[in-house]
Design a protein that fits this description.
The chain is α+β, with helices and mostly antiparallel strands. It has five helices and five strands. It has a single domain, classed as Heat Shock Protein 90. The chain has a five-stranded mixed sheet. Strand 2 and strand 3 form a beta hairpin.
Length: about 240
């Protein structure tokens, strides 16, 4: 074998190595873009939550003045009714701001506002501070965001008068558990094995068929589990992650 053959083989090997390096760089670049997008969304949610808390603080002083005025006028029934409305409104934000993860708190507050704008009753039940969460905050935000969006899309097809969506965050000694349930249409059993596949969707149009696939990919990367139960009453997606040290 002549020198030219060795040079050719060496050149081919070099090209293959360069292509492999470029492929790795492109993959890492795409991951960075995805992470940056998620972080920017978290920052935006945090800003909106901060604005909401500042407005609530300002409104709180106004509410006190109104309540005091009603008390001075001895309009006790009206004062009681007003207090109930104020308490219910303040409780909504308070329920979302219960974990040690600001990005999660901001996401829940943002999704609550989005759901209510669509006429959906949004309930949040947090029984964990998530202090030992092993998964990155921005990745958990993507999981919860896609599950909540999926539930809201399902409720678009609901024929019931009341549209309800609930997020529950609990924990066991070993794992954190997140469940998202809605009272939308039942998911047919014959498609349940496919709904986590990229591109699969019961709806037509750009953007559908991606959310649950993203959830599945993040769960696989972080050793998470997911369960689905669906009947005529409710559909529940339950995900769990192990705790860190």
């Amino acid at each position: 074998m002549g020198d030219s053959s060795f040079y050719l083989i060496g050149f081919v090997i070099l090209v293959v190595i360069l292509i492999a390096c470029i492929a790795v760089l492109i993959r890492n670049y795409m991951k960075l873009i995805a992470r940056n997008d998620a972080l920017m969304e978290s920052v935006d949610n945090l800003c909106r939550l901060n604005d909401k808390l500042r407005m609530d603080r300002h409104d709180y002083l106004n509410h006190l003045q109104i309540i005091y005025g009603l008390m001075e006028l001895e309009e006790y029934d009206e004062m009681n009714s007003y207090l109930r409305k104020v308490y219910k409104e303040l409780l909504k934000t308070g329920k979302a701001v219960k974990t040690s993860k600001p990005a999660i708190n901001a996401l829940l507050a943002a999704k609550m506002a989005e759901a209510e704008a669509q006429g959906i009753e949004f309930q949040v039940d947090v029984k964990s501070d998530l202090k030992k969460l092993a998964i990155e905050d921005w990745e958990l935000c993507k999981v919860l965001s896609n599950l909540i969006d999926n539930a809201m899309k399902a409720l678009e097809d609901s024929t019931g008068e009341e549209k309800k969506l609930r997020v529950q965050i609990t924990e066991t000694p070993e794992r954190y558990i997140f469940s998202v349930d809605d009272n939308g249409p039942k998911i047919p059993e014959d498609i349940r094995d496919n709904i986590f596949k990229r591109g699969f969707s019961t709806k037509k149009g750009e953007g559908h068929g991606m959310g649950l696939a993203i959830v599945s990919e993040i769960l696989s990367k972080n050793s998470g589990d997911i369960e689905l139960s669906s009947d005529d009453e409710e559909t529940v997606f339950t995900v769990s992650f192990g705790k860190g040290e």
